[in-house]
Each structure stands twice: as structure tokens, then as C-alpha cells.
């Protein structure tokens, strides 16, 4: 961080970064105060140990029976068979052959009951670990990670969402953490248009006018400097850095071989972009894959969708492991909910939250672990029932954050994770 | 029938206030409110040994007053006229002129809209009708208690009064949501944490306060009139008792709540025999009307003299609007552990506000007249800057998204261009209507999340990129008849150019250093790049901290 050349005496300035927090676990202390360490080598070390999050969101609600919890040969299983994996005794659906070979790095929770069959509410619940309630919004796991794990000195956005559709700067998924920690959406992997200088503005003209702005700010702030004025002035430096670092977001800079390994379809490119972002210092990345809302033709659609998902996902896990990044990257494959064991008359499966699965990896999550189980035909949880709150606690623990701490928002203490739930200890190293 | 009920309610309320006033108004003329403010603030600063900032310069005062009262910066022409005016009472005159202007009513309506609705997307009442209702209320200087009673009493079924129902209708009449926001917006208390138990950190927020308010609205729900184009309005049941338990209570004791506002007396409820509760009984497709409506009691109870929190809350919010932070701060967290910085002053302001029949314009006028408001934002030259809550120095206020949009339109001269283009048709409404479409991208980029109080200021990458690379600001800076760069192109003297730039954008003349800087920049860019250079210089000032913060 730049040194202040003049008095930074406002109280707000001294406490701004911490004011939201009642306290944090030791694991996050490095990220909180990275720039405060005197010795650059220490800061570097801490930064190397910084943790990251990758959420793969299977939008619409993927079927647990076609992915993590197949039930071949039962009245609900449909045509989907189970195949062995790299972990003896653990079987997953045949539609995930590449993923099966990474099973020793993955964990499955098969006993999720979220009691929420609405797309919007289910999505909210899985990303925030809370049931929606009037008058209150909680931050998503990506925003939480951006807030607590990203280095303050980092000029790139802390949370990036890669998805089909349009690009935009989000403002809401970070809730009370503020828009600074909201996701930047890269529609089809492309930055919002304002991230590029318009053609009519040359780099040198932009530099010159920003130099004039800087001088004006310097004069104004000589006696009127606050945390807010400083953050505002600094936000233009961040903008300039982002413009200069646009290559970070350019997946075409990856090698042709990697482009081929991940696949030339959208989801493949988006996953490769996610790897690139994680490697280059983005703390939280979410990749959405559409669409799994298979009310009809469930099996055909899953063959098609998972045919896209399987290889890039497995390649990502392998690459993260090879690069030594899996130990510090929490990976979660989630959806709004699962799908009904009952197969409807259109050969579809409908919304189903009573017994479904999520896949996790990295950041100390036990490779090969299978948590909980459903009954023989998947119509109910048979053992170790958990909800979104338990998963959220588990993410926090894996990331080195203490989920029992509280935010203090406008004087109100707000538990960081649902106090009625706790972490799935068996999953954690 | 609705009209009769409203009338009866108004009478009861007025009587209650009359008897309260009789006990509170002194025979001798009290000191003007602005004097009371200044005496209290100065005495508190003196007691703490805090030096006061110098009075604000005319230029600083002018910019601040425009932003606070009409929501935009003044034009260069208006600035020149004010700065050149030698009249000793020109500040008071300006305050009165702005308060009486239609621009003020428009601005106040915008501020109130955000306060009431917190940028929720429209649900049942269109924003345009609601804004117009608020604007007219501000234009008529409708007393605050009257406005609040209207908002909380209408059910939305009558087209003429429907806009006022937005507060409850657009919260889907969800009783917890409504309870939380009535507490916050009208009483300055955020009782959210008291929903499940007495507030764990705040002794002064017991759970029964929450359920006392909740009991007024818990029987209310949305009613869809299938016979009238599915119009959604409010209905109320005649039954439904409110009981609650604390999640901390091991015995799980069940308590009953009757409608009451905070620690005021609970309302008297008539005992109605079973089967006799309804004037119109609930049947399929028919909106029920209970003989006794709990919700109908809320407006008069809330605004009654027995609820000091009601008058204090608005006095504090008006104070915060002008001074940059509340005497209680945040404005919805008034409790024993977060006391007002100047408790007697807040109590006095609340009482004086009530005595003045909740006259918002008078309160704003008095606040603006105070030396406290008219102090510089430059702290005294020596020592630590005084803390914001001392009001010894004027706090910096980030512009709201709307203030920012309108101010950039004024600074770049887009507004001047529009004025001359309108010609004879120019008035507040036509100018507003012609430009208002430009505002929503600013709201989208600079506003906090919908349905939440505006959080602490955050500068985001999205915002700086919006100003740095976005098409809007770039387009506004481009020369067009009467715009800033168009005016600059007609000037040759670098000093005159600097003057026009600074006066148009920062509402002040440049310093010698700044004049020299402008001249140097123009020389560096060369004669063939004048238009580009002007746009760059103007951009630098528009993007500056000095522009972004009301100071």
C-alpha cells in the first residue's frame, strides 16, 4: 500500500477495514493485514498460503441420480448405471467417467435435505447458507471469500462469475459486505465494456487527465483526508490497473493444448478461464453451467450436459492438484436442489430438495470421503442428514475462517453462518 | 366511509396534540432553533476543548446548500451571481429561495423515496405515482405527521389515495418486514434482533417492543380483487393473537402481545362477541372488513405525543440530511448504548419540530441558518481534526447516486444545453423530464443493495470504470451548444478558461496554482488539441474527490 505523505488521523481510516468484524480466526489474519507486514518475504509467504474458492453451479438443479448418487436397478434409477471410481467401493454415475478418476481428490455429501424446491430460494440458500427471510440478505460464499481472503493490495476484483449471458458488475450478492465484494460477471467470459478504454481515449490522454485528477485529490486531501476520500481516489488507480491487466481475463492467451484439454465448448472455455483467474490471484470464482432443469427428457439432457461438464471439471481438479493449488482451493459443485427420484410421464425429473448431493474438493476436504447416504431408491436421507447451513460451516472451516464469529452490521450482531448448524467434521482434514 | 374514518382519526390526533402543546409551550418566545443548535454545539465543543472550524466561504456554502436542498450543484451563472452579491443577508435569502423552489420539492421527494422504499424494485404501486405523491407533499410542505398517517392508513383500494399505500403494499404487507421498517424509518429503532429474543447487545430493545408493533400489522395481508382487474390492496382479519417466546428462554414461556408503540400504553381493544367481529365477513372473493381494525390504530398511536421517538426520529433524520450524520448515528439505532451525541439538543429539536406542527421546511431552514451548518469542512489548522460527532467541523458527505448524476449533468453543461434547447418551454418539470432518463445508470452503479439501508460508503471498481470509461460521462463532456466545453472553446485567455472550468465544476474560482496548472496543461496539449484538452481537464475535476463529496 502507498504510504500516506500526510496525516491520516481520522479514526475511520484506522479502523475502516475491520469495522465490520467482531473478530476472525487466525487463519485469515494474513489476508486481513497482508499489507501491514514489514517484511515483504513474510507477506509473500502468507499470500502464497492464501485460500481460494471455486464454485461450479449446475443451474436448474442437476440430478443426484445421474451424478453423485446413482441408483441403478431400482424403480427410481432410470437407465443410468454406476461406475467404479479411483476410490475402491465408491461408485458414481456412468455419465462422469473422467470425474470418477479424480474421486480420490473429491468428497461427496449424499445426505442433503434443504427443504426448498424453488429455484431462486434454493439458489440463495446454497450460496449463502441461509433460508431466505424478509428484510435480511446474507452474502454469498464468493463475496465472503473476497472480503476475508483477498489481499487488500490486490487491484483485481475479488469475486468473478463466469456464465453464459451478459456481463456486469454486481452489487447485491455481497449483501451487507457492500458492493466492493460483489461478483463481477463475465458474460461468456468477457469483462463488462467499461473495463476497456474507449477507442476515442488514448492511453496517454487517460494518463494525463488522471494525473490532473491525482493532483486535485492531493490538494483537497491535505487537510480533508478520510478513509472514504482515500478509497475513492484509489479506486481510479485500481481501474487503471484492471485496464492494464485485462489479459488476466483473456482465455485465448491459454495454450492451444489446454484449450483442447478443457474442450472448445462454452463450459470448457469457462472452466479454463476459471483456472487462469485462480492462478492469477482472483480469490473467488463461480462458473455456472446451464441448464439442468430437466422436467422432461431428464436422461438425454443429462447425457448432453454432463458430457460437457465431466472432462473440464476433472481436468480442473487434476490441474489444481498438479500445480499444488488444490490444498488451498476449495472446490464445490452445487445446484439449487436435486431432482425427484420419481420419473414423470415426460421422462423428466422435477425439483427435489429432500435427498440430494453436493461434491467438494480441496482446502483440506478429505479426498474420497462419502458423507451420509440415501435409502435404496433415493427417496429419503437414510443417514447423516445435513442442510445448506452445515455446508456453509464446512466451507468456512476449510477456508480457515471461524463460522461462529459474528459480523457487526450497523450495531447488530449477525452470525457469519447459521448458528443452528455446524460443520461436517468428517469432511475436514 | 373511508373518508369519514380518516377525518375522525385526524381529529383525535389533533386534540391529543393540542393538550400536549398546552403543557409544553412557554409563554415567552423561545430562542430560534438555529440559535439553540449553535449554543449547544459550541458549548459542548468548548467543554471538550475542541476548536471550531472557520465559517464556510460563500462558495463552499453555496455548493453545499444546493446539493442539500435541490440535489445538484449550481450553474456557473448562478454561482457568479451569488458570489458577486454584496448583500449581507444573501445566505438567508438563498436558503428561502431554494426551499420555496419546485426543485427542492423534487429533491426532497427523491430523498424520502429512498428513505421509505430503500430502492426496492416496484411491486404494486408504480414508482412514478408514488414519487409524484411525495413531490406534491413536499411542495405543499405537508406536515410530517400527516404524511406518515396517510402512508400508514390507506389500504390502496381507492385510486386517489393508492400511491401512499406503497410503503406497506410493496413490502407485500409481510408483517415482519413491515414491523422492522416502521421501527427503523418512523421511530429510529432497528428492532430486528428483538424478533427472536431481547436484543443481545442492546438492553433498550426488548422483545415486547417488537411484538407490540408487530401486533398492529400482523392481521394485515394482501387482498387481490378478482372483480377489479386483480387490484392488490390491504385487508385485515379480525382475529389472530400475537404470542411470542424467547429463543433464549429455557422454559419456553409464551407471552402475549397487544398493539402498542414501544413503551407507550397498549391500545384499548373492544371485546367483540364471537361471530360479531366483522362488518363485512370474509367470504370467497370478498374483502373482509373487521369491526375493529388494529392497523387503523397505528397511525394515531405512532404519531401521538406519548411517543417521543417519533418526533425525535425525524428531527434526527433532517439533521443528518443537512449535517452529514445524525445526532444519533446510524439514524435507526437509537438506544441506550448508542446515545445521541447531544441528547438535550435532540430532545429539544424533537419537541420544537412537534411544536411547529411537524413543519419540515421550517426545520430545514433553521438547520441551514445555523453556524453549525455553515462551518467549513476544513478542520482547524492545528491539532487532531475534531471528531465528526462534535459537529465542530463539517463532515464530508458522499453524493447520492442521484446527486452525482444531476451534478455531472450540470458540471458538463448538459443541463445548460437542455435549458437553452427548451427555450420558452423551460421550467422545472420540463428540464427534469428531459434529463431524468440519464439517472438510472448512476443508481445502478452507485447505489447499495435494494431493500437495505444505504451502507457505509464504498468506492468500487465498477464505479471508477464507469466514470473513467463509461459512455455517459464521455458523451456529456463532448461539446454541444451551451455546454461547458462549448463555452471554453470560445475563450482564449487561460486564466478565464480556468475560472470557467472551476466555477462550473467545483463552484469556486481556481487558486493561483490551479490556474497555472490549467495553462500548463493546455500548452502541453498544443493548440490543435484544445477540445480534447478541455474534456480531459473537465473530466479530471468531475472525477476528483472534491466533486464526489459534498463538503
Description:
With 429 residues, chain A is α/β, with parallel strands linked by helices. Chain A folds into 2 domains: 17-196 and 256-427, Alkaline Phosphatase, subunit A (3-Layer(aba) Sandwich); 198-244. Chain A contains 12 helices and 17 strands. In chain A, the strands form 5 sheets. Chain A has a 9-stranded mixed beta sheet with strand order 6-7-5-8-1-9-12-4-13, sandwiched between helices. In chain A, helix 5 (119-128) runs parallel beside helix 12 (388-398) and helix 7 (203-224) runs antiparallel to helix 8. The longest helix of chain A is centred in the C-terminal third of the chain and has 25 residues, at 298-322. Among the domains of chain B are: 171-306, no CATH class; 397-550, no CATH class. In chain B, helix 3 packs parallel to helix 5 (90-99), helix 4 (76-84) crosses helix 23 and helix 8 (144-153) packs antiparallel against helix 12 (294-302). Mean pLDDT of chain B is 92; it is low at 1-11. At the A-B interface, helix 7 and helix 8 of A face helix 10, helix 20, helix 24, helix 25 and helix 26 of B.
How is this structure best summarized?
Chain A has helices at 11-15, 29-33, 40-49, 97-100, 119-128, 141-149, 203-224, 227-244, 256-262, 266-279, 298-322, 388-398; strands at 52-59, 82-84, 91-93, 106-112, 159-163, 168-169, 184-187, 284-290, 329-334, 338-339, 351-352, 356-361, 370-371, 373-374, 381-383, 406-409, 412-415.
Give structural attributes.
heterodimer, A: 429 residues, alpha/beta, Alkaline Phosphatase, subunit A, nine-stranded mixed β-sheet, two-stranded antiparallel sheet, 12 helices, 16% strand, globular, disordered N terminus, B: 551 residues, mainly alpha, two-stranded antiparallel ribbon, 26 helices, 8 strands, 52% helix
Amino acid at each position: 500500500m502507498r504510504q500516506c505523505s500526510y496525516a491520516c488521523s481520522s479514526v475511520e481510516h484506522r479502523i475502516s477495514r475491520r469495522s465490520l468484524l467482531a473478530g476472525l480466526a487466525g487463519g485469515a489474519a494474513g489476508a486481513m493485514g497482508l499489507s501491514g507486514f514489514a517484511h515483504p518475504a513474510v507477506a509473500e509467504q502468507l499470500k502464497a498460503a492464501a485460500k481460494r474458492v471455486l464454485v461450479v453451479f449446475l443451474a436448474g438443479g442437476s440430478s443426484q441420480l445421474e451424478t453423485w448418487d446413482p441408483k441403478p436397478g431400482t424403480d427410481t434409477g432410470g437407465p443410468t448405471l454406476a461406475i467404479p471410481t479411483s476410490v475402491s467401493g465408491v461408485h458414481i454415475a456412468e455419465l462422469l467417467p473422467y470425474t470418477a478418476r479424480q474421486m480420490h481428490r473429491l468428497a461427496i455429501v449424499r445426505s442433503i435435505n434443504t427443504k426448498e424446491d424453488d429455484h431462486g430460494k434454493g439458489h440463495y440458500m446454497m450460496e449463502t447458507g441461509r433460508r431466505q427471510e424478509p428484510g435480511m440478505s446474507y452474502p454469498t460464499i464468493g463475496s465472503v471469500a473476497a472480503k476475508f481472503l483477498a489481499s487488500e493490495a490486490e487491484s483485481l476484483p475479488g469475486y468473478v462469475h463466469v456464465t453464459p449471458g451478459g456481463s456486469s458488475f454486481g452489487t447485491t450478492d455481497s449483501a451487507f459486505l457492500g458492493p466492493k465484494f460483489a461478483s463481477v460477471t463475465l458474460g461468456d467470459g468477457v469483462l463488462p465494456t467499461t473495463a476497456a478504454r474507449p477507442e476515442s481515449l488514448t492511453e496517454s490522454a487517460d494518463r494525463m487527465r488522471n494525473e490532473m485528477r491525482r493532483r486535485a485529490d492531493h490538494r483537497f486531501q491535505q487537510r480533508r483526508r478520510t478513509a472514504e476520500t482515500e478509497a475513492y481516489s484509489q479506486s481510479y488507480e485500481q481501474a487503471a490497473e484492471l485496464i492494464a491487466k485485462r489479459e488476466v481475463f483473456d482465455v485465448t492467451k491459454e495454450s492451444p493444448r489446454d484449450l483442447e484439454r478443457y474442450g472448445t465448448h462454452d463450459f470448457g472455455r469457462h472452466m479454463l478461464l476459471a483456472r487462469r483467474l485462480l492462478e492469477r490471484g482472483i480469490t473467488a470464482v463461480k462458473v455456472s453451467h446451464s441448464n439442468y432443469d430437466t422436467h422432461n427428457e431428464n436422461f438425454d439432457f443429462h447425457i448432453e450436459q454432463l458430457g460437457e461438464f465431466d472432462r473440464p471439471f476433472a481436468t480442473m481438479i487434476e490441474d489444481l492438484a498438479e500445480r499444488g493449488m488444490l490444498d488451498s482451493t476449495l472446490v464445490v459443485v452445487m445446484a439449487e436442489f436435486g431432482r425427484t427420484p420419481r420419473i414423470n410421464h415426460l421422462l423428466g425429473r422435477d425439483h427435489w430438495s429432500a435427498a440430494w448431493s453436493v461434491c467438494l474438493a480441496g482446502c483440506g476436504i478429505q479426498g474420497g470421503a462419502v458423507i451420509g447416504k440415501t435409502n435404496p431408491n433415493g427417496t429419503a436421507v437414510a443417514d447423516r442428514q445435513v442442510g445448506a447451513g452445515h455446508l456453509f460451516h464446512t466451507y468456512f472451516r476449510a477456508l480457515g475462517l471461524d463460522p461462529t464469529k459474528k459480523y457487526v452490521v450497523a450495531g447488530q450482531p449477525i452470525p457469519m453462518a447459521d448458528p443452528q448448524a455446524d460443520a461436517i467434521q468428517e469432511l475436514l482434514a | 366511509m373511508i373518508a369519514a374514518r380518516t377525518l375522525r382519526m385526524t381529529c383525535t390526533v389533533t386534540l391529543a396534540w393540542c393538550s400536549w402543546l398546552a403543557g409544553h409551550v412557554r409563554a415567552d418566545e423561545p430562542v430560534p432553533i438555529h440559535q439553540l443548535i449553535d449554543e449547544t454545539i459550541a458549548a459542548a465543543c468548548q467543554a471538550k476543548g475542541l476548536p471550531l472550524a472557520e465559517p464556510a466561504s460563500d462558495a463552499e456554502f453555496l455548493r453545499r446548500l444546493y446539493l442539500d436542498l435541490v440535489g445538484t450543484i449550481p450553474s456557473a451563472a448562478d454561482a457568479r451571481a451569488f458570489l458577486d452579491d454584496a448583500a449581507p443577508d444573501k445566505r438567508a435569502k438563498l436558503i428561502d429561495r431554494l426551499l420555496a423552489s419546485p426543485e427542492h420539492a423534487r429533491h426532497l421527494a427523491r430523498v424520502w423515496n429512498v428513505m421509505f422504499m430503500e430502492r426496492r424494485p416496484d411491486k404494486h404501486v408504480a414508482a412514478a405515482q408514488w414519487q409524484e405523491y411525495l413531490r406534491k407533499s413536499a411542495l405543499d410542505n405537508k406536515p410530517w405527521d400527516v404524511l406518515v398517517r396517510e402512508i400508514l392508513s390507506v389500504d390502496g383500494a381507492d385510486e386517489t389515495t393508492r400511491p401512499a399505500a406503497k410503503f406497506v403494499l410493496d413490502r407485500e404487507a409481510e408483517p415482519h418486514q413491515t414491523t422492522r421498517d416502521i421501527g427503523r424509518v418512523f421511530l429510529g429503532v432497528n428492532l430486528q434482533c428483538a424478533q427472536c429474543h431481547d436484543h443481545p447487545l442492546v438492553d433498550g430493545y426488548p422483545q415486547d417492543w417488537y411484538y407490540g408493533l408487530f401486533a398492529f400489522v400482523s392481521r394485515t395481508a394482501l387482498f387481490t380483487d378478482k372483480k377489479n382487474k386483480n387490484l392488490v390492496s390491504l385487508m385485515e382479519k379480525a382475529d389472530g393473537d400475537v404470542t411470542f417466546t424467547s429463543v433464549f428462554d429455557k422454559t419456553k414461556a409464551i407471552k402475549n402481545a397487544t398493539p402498542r408503540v414501544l413503551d407507550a400504553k397498549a391500545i384499548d381493544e373492544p371485546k367483540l362477541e364471537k361471530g360479531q367481529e366483522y362488518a363485512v365477513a370474509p367470504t370467497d372473493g370478498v374483502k373482509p372488513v373487521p369491526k375493529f381494525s388494529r392497523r387503523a390504530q397505528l397511525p394515531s398511536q405512532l404519531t401521538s405525543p406519548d411517543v417521543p421517538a417519533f418526533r425525535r426520529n425525524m428531527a434526527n433524520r433532517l439533521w443528518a440530511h443537512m449535517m452529514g450524520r445524525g445526532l444519533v448515528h446510524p439514524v435507526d439505532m437509537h438506544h441506550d448504548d448508542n446515545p445521541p451525541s447531544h441528547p438535550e439538543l435532540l430532545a429539544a429539536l424533537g419537541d420544537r419540530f412537534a411544536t411547529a406542527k411537524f413543519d419540515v421546511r421550517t426545520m430545514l431552514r433553521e438547520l441551514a441558518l445555523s453556524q453549525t451548518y455553515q462551518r467549513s469542512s476544513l478542520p482547524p489548522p492545528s491539532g487532531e481534526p475534531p471528531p465528526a460527532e462534535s459537529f465542530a467541523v463539517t463532515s464530508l458527505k458522499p453524493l447520492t447516486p442521484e446527486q452525482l448524476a444531476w451534478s455531472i449533468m450540470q458540471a458538463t453543461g448538459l443541463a445548460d444545453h437542455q435549458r437553452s434547447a427548451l427555450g420558452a418551454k423551460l421550467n422545472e418539470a420540463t428540464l427534469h423530464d428531459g434529463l431524468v432518463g440519464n439517472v438510472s445508470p448512476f443508481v445502478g452503479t452507485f447505489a447499495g443493495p435494494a431493500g437495505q439501508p444505504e451502507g457505509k460508503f464504498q468506492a468500487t471498481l465498477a464505479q471508477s470504470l464507469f466514470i473513467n470509461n463509461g459512455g455517459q460521462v464521455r458523451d456529456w463532456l463532448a461539446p454541444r451548444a451551451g455546454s461547458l466545453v462549448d463555452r471554453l472553446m470560445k475563450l482564449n485567455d487561460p486564466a478565464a478558461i480556468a475560472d470557467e472550468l472551476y466555477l462550473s465544476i467545483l463552484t469556486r474560482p481556481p487558486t493561483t496554482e490551479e490556474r497555472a496548472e490549467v495553462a500548463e496543461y493546455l500548452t502541453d496539449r498544443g493548440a490543435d488539441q484544445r477540445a480534447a484538452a478541455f474534456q480531459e481537464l473537465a473530466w479530471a475535476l468531475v472525477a476528483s474527490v472534491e466533486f464526489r463529496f459534498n463538503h
